[in-house]
């Protein structure tokens, strides 16, 4: 188990928050004077934040809470007023003693209200904001009209349809007719921006979210604007050059259908997708994701915001790492010595063999890609059998943003449940190999790993009396299994992973398993019951809560309290 | 009869006057710099002590100098906004991106008397503790850029610039930066972005006020060429003497660029407010009148983005009477004194000092179509209302100017313009909207008549051939 404490010490009591009193649509509201900006740094609270606190909404395109403010779309223009100050520098009062408010007007046309962009304008004491006034509505309507005059209005064939801010705001704030009678501006279509992104410049509203994300978050200044005025066009510095590991985030960020994912475009109308909260399994970061599926097929992963883990982003590699779930060669059948069998027969035989196995004659190699609950059950089994255990390390390259060097999604789970060797996973694999060679170990249990790739070759496997394997995809190890138990992809079951920083995160089931495959924790629960005689829980909630009671690191946790974004434990 | 008062252009057009430093020094050049550097600290009646630099800054404020670039904002006040406590370097930028249509004054200074600008800049930099300054010159003026480079080299050689200027221990470097030719680079925050090597997208204010977060996020002063030249004369004359030029609140002289339908277009330096629009157009010392047989139709008084004035208009202006009381006085168009406040009172602005005169041979529809095409082409496209609205107006006007107009185009155009003004990141929105708003309002009949004629012709039969030329800014 790693002793590196990554959780911060308990923070001191927060200092009292200084508040400002303002009015939003006539209602008194108290808001903090300072709030975090896109980098989490405290800055004067903006009108937009204040209106959100007041329970209102300000439509916007270019503003994004995690990107530097641009202020270019003008959709968030809001009419406002400030308390009048007399020549004596004292507030001017109405007859009833309330402060007189000077509404912001055009300096050269005092009869015309003037808005401020809510995304970038700080509030001040006594300020009045009118996010629903006729003037504010007129300003929004005008911006929408401008955004639509040159837009191709090709919603029926647009991938963004159904999750498009241009559509949504047109419904909420737009007008039904257009006055535009001129010829539209035409811009490049289906531009190959990079290996994973296609751009339709005609649909683009030039909010520059993609540019700011690439430059300021991904650190790849690959995008910019060419041409001028109404002919402004987003472009990569060279066609096809938009190629970093985070490009697909721009598809999420794009409020319209300009940036589309080559992987997802034209495959599925978004309103048919079932959304399931899940966690990415491609590395130890454990980015929170939403799985978009329909009729048992996964169509996309999208990042799900979790500021403790991934913010609103995820890497392209992780996002596109879903196709294996639907692979044709997925293991679908229970096999005993290569012959198709039923779960009952297999589990009965395995239980009998394990129950009869002498102490120390069984070894167990688990995978840090399994759920914590499964690892917990395997650990119980191993202790009963006096089995040597370990898991397989999976190290690779990381980056400064999200990608972790550990490619196992649940390495900490494997450590905390005592299954993986410490301090380095894989440290006992040599011992296990030796014990098989010496004949001490006669039975090997392998979950989710191809052990022939980590020092236990087919020659060693041939020496075993019994090889019990559970996996999802075929390998040299599954090919030689005495008992082969088809398991589930994470998207086909529920469970938790503990990420590299000790965040315990649960994920939900999006699609049904293939063939006879069963969630590992389900059949492991049966196996543990049969072998140890201990009763367990047959629900994931109960199992998790039992684990929390038995594993010190999870002490006090409950499945229900994990919420959607998880809980950090000491690792 | 009013005459020019040549302060800035005192020598520029004299026979034999050359832009080199020897000629400039022969004519008293760099004496103001020496005087400024030798300024004595001043103790105020309240006991507050002003450093030599603060004295010059106060003098500029006291002179009443207003920016000659377009907005007419007090130069001294602008300097006073500079954040001097940030610990960051303070930059000064000379805005030589003169590109407002109708304006050709700064280039006279740059081409004929570049050292006057350099001297004004050095004084301004010294007064503001600036160690590094830039001259941002528009890309279309390559010769001016070469002359400025040469002038800077000459000043460096004579130790008016560089390390330890004239033995005072003050170091200053000035670089010339050439723009690539875009009107928006004249907007000060767009200029700063461009100078930083980025696309000239104006910055949002708040928070990016140049005086606090300007060039490289440091406090920055951006002044027009002519404004910086005036600083030299304020130092030479003293603020009180300088303020006697012009009229109260509109002090000094300014160079007026007069173009359009006059006999004698050109540039004239006048005391601000001492000459009327009518005199500028009709007097022999200035425009010399309209072309024979023509009558005045309209005046664009302060560069193409200012609101147009119609011949025969009478304005109600505030005037201080002999008793000191403000009263409203009727002032006919041609009697408008050419200064900042009178033109503002007339609902327009003196802007960059560029007067464009139009006589009765001009079609307002065609003129506005031309102007709008300019603004559609020069909109940087950063923010929605201006990006989409400027081309929308240009397309509508192009249609109207080429035989495909409609009666309702007047309302159509003014609605578009109203949805731009006051809603954009920078003042370009107003620059694009104001000509449209003022033209269609003041010459409504002409616009409606065009639309009606087109509609009538269309309903008369389908055989009519539209005179549609290529649409504005084809890409």
Can you give a write-up of this model?
The complex is a heterodimer of chains A (571) and B (475). With 571 residues, chain A is of the alpha+beta class. Chain A contains 14 helices and 28 strands. Chain A folds into three domains: 19-147, Ubiquitin-like (UB roll) (Roll); 155-160 and 181-326, Alpha-Beta Plaits; 334-568, Rossmann fold (3-Layer(aba) Sandwich), CATH 3.40.50. In chain A, strands 20-19-25-24-23-21-22 form a seven-stranded mixed beta sheet, sandwiched between helices. In chain A, strands 1, 2, 5, 6, 9 and 10 form a six-stranded mixed beta sheet that branches. Chain A has a three-stranded antiparallel beta sheet with strand order 11-12-15. The longest helix of chain A is centred in the first third of the chain and has 16 residues, at 134-149. The termini of chain A are close together. The model of chain A is unreliable at 1-8 (pLDDT under 50). Chain B has a five-stranded mixed beta sheet, with no helix packed on it. Chain B has a four-stranded parallel beta sheet with strand order 5-4-3-6, with helices on both faces. In chain B, strands 1-2 form a two-stranded antiparallel sheet. Chain B folds into three domains: 21-243, 3-Layer(aba) Sandwich (Rossmann fold); 250-359, Ubiquitin-like (UB roll); 364-460, NADH-ubiquinone oxidoreductase 51kDa subunit, iron-sulphur binding domain (de novo design (two linked rop proteins), Up-down Bundle), CATH 1.20.1440.230. Chain B is globular, with a radius of gyration of 24 Å. The model of chain B has no long low-confidence stretch (mean pLDDT 95). Classes of the chains: A alpha+beta (571), B alpha/beta (475). Chain A binds chain B through residues 69-75, 77, 106, 108-109, 112, 114-115, 117, 120-122, 139, 142-143, 145-147, 149-150, 179-183, 185, 205-206, 224-225, 227-232, and chain B through 182, 199, 201, 204, 206-207, 347, 376-385, 387-392, 395-396, 399, 406, 412, 415, 418-419, 421-425, 430, 471, 473, 475.
